[in-house]
């Protein structure tokens, strides 16, 4: 080897060793910096254009891109599970532990206990006041449950707003870093620190939305979701969110902006109408999706449960079943039903038998007082399998009969023989159908001189009756926030016992307390799928106490399920993060060992230079 070649190799070796030493020093200095990826220099031989030979080093980030991809996919699932578990846990705490006095079911049990005491001593003023206070406690607890649920929905709304703001910041960061990385790569400058910063932004972005990335040869990264929404390409998109204020049971999400009462996430486009990402189902995981799901599903289900409890409680105290009277007309048979007590929202139920198939069919007619409330869907009641028709009573009984006739068809004969009587007859000699029953569930409106049942609870403190009406919006929605003990009972607790004035009820008559106890214990109600205690379209039938216990159990199981999902996802996340740390983070011991190796290499190259110098000196002296 010529002396000049030896000199060239030694000089390039010193430079390469120095650069690698700088790289190792950089690793050590940034070992604790979040997002820093270890650098490593790869050294290769080169031959210059003038025939010189030497060593050339290239610094590269040591990152496992496949592992990084898996981590970016796992992160949004982990954060989604975490948010779900936190809110489920709070709802579970709110509902209390089954069997305890402060649980949802315990509040109803306390009311039952006070009514039992009143039944034993109906003439006791203390027992009457205690029973009223127990009923008041139930109403106040339902009010508070509803308020707490809506507070959590408002909290989720705020979290979505903050999340959208943070996502926009991260997307802008990635766009800016893309531009710098592309420019520096084009200029053949080191951009490892910029790539670290970009990866760190993507990592945080993955906590909010599910992301995937793709990098082209120029160094530009494209970021998109699994649903196909591009977040960053040549530029970043901007998300919008029309945050609302304090949410209420009536403020719900809807794809129709005119009906929507909560914020929705949109993509702001240049001059074009914004795209609703929630309507398109384009955000499926991460904290944004979790908060949306909590706001629009989990907490709405909890509100539906409270409203169903409040509605059932009011109906149990005041509802009355009116049975039809069997009638015939020639070969036709059916029932007459008195509708004089039917209120807006009260149902009429017709049960028929198909002779050919042997199947029973249930048709429910709901009273409405405005045609604007029509039509109604079958889920207007919680009953499973019934067909629902809204009937506008504003035109009088003749119109009511005509509407029911149109709904049932020619196989039936519907008429209004007199007053408020509805008559429905089968097809007579044709013999294809039989009418099994015709009943109505009506609301008792008076506290005295009416029935043993009475409106113990009202819709608010103004004395408005709860009839489950649908006119002007669903009265049931948010009823748990408004339910209150009837002012007339608060002012005169004796009405819990004295239900008649002529003849006057005896002070010691236990008839009404016993009736209320029986209704609480034995009256069953249908609770629909929107309450979450059943899956699919099956209705859940239970007493008030049974449903209250089912609600408590529901949230206990939900928090158990979400905890299991969180634990499973945490295990995956921790495993991936550990592997990522092992492959990309700085190990101080390894870096120090490498420094010692580089020190030896530097000394060896320096020795070559020294020997070459001595050889050149010897040549010059000869």
UniProtKB/TrEMBL annotation:
UniProt domain Flagellar basal-body/hook protein C-terminal: residue ranges: 580-621
Highest taxon above the source species: Bacteria
Pfam families given in the database record: Flg_bbr_C (PF06429), FlgK_D1 (PF22638)
Coiled-coil regions, chain positions: 135-187
Keywords annotated in UniProt: Bacterial flagellum, Coiled coil, Secreted
Subcellular location: Bacterial flagellum; Secreted
Ranges that cross the membrane: none
Gene Ontology BP terms: bacterial-type flagellum assembly
Main location (coarse class): other
GO cellular component, one term: extracellular region
Domain Flagellar hook-associated protein FlgK helical: 89-327
GO molecular function, one term: structural molecule activity
PANTHER family noted in UniProt: FLAGELLAR HOOK-ASSOCIATED PROTEIN 1 (PTHR30033:SF1)
Family: Belongs to the flagella basal body rod proteins family.
UniProt cross-references to NCBIfam families, sorted A to Z: flgK_ends
Name of the protein described by the UniProt record: Flagellar hook-associated protein 1
Lineage per the UniProt record: Bacteria, Pseudomonadati, Pseudomonadota, Alphaproteobacteria, Hyphomicrobiales
